[in-house]
């Protein structure tokens, strides 16, 4: 299936949604703020689309989120500090976007994080934050 256009704002009304996979389509526009209303969401796959805009602070409300994949889009703007609120996050995949600036030190708050992939973001700068010293990351199986 190859879905396209923007995601409907009605997605925010799916408060019992636990798994959302919209990968490998042709969605455009920004990731909707209303996604933060899906408080039971455990797995969110938006990879391989044409999303732009920023990683929204509203994503920090997704306290049940274990896996977030936004790779291969056109996402820009600094990583939101609210990402550090995703206490259940195990996997964060954000490579091949246009993420600028340094990695957010708030990622160091993610005590369950095992996989962090942020390569191929040609605008990332700076050093790996000291907050990352508390993480125990693992190499992905397909590396």
Automatic annotation (TrEMBL):
It comes from the Eukaryota. Pfam families: LRR_1. PANTHER family: LEUCINE-RICH REPEAT-CONTAINING N-TERMINAL PLANT-TYPE DOMAIN-CONTAINING PROTEIN, OS01G0149700 PROTEIN. This is Uncharacterized protein.
């Amino acid at each position: 299936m190859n879905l396209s256009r923007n995601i409907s704002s009605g997605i925010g009304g799916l408060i019992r949604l636990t798994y959302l996979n919209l990968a490998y389509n042709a969605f455009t526009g920004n990731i909707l703020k209303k996604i933060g209303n899906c408080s039971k969401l455990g797995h969110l796959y938006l990879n391989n689309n044409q999303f732009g805009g920023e990683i929204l602070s509203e994503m920090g409300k997704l306290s049940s989120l274990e896996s977030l994949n936004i790779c291969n889009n056109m996402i820009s703007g600094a990583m939101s500090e609210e990402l550090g609120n995703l206490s259940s996050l195990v996997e964060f995949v954000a490579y091949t976007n246009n993420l600028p600036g340094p990695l957010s030190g708030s990622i160091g708050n993610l005590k369950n994080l095992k996989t962090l992939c942020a390569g191929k973001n040609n605008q990332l700068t700076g050093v790996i934050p000291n907050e990352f010293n508390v993480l125990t990351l693992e190499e992905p199986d397909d590396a």
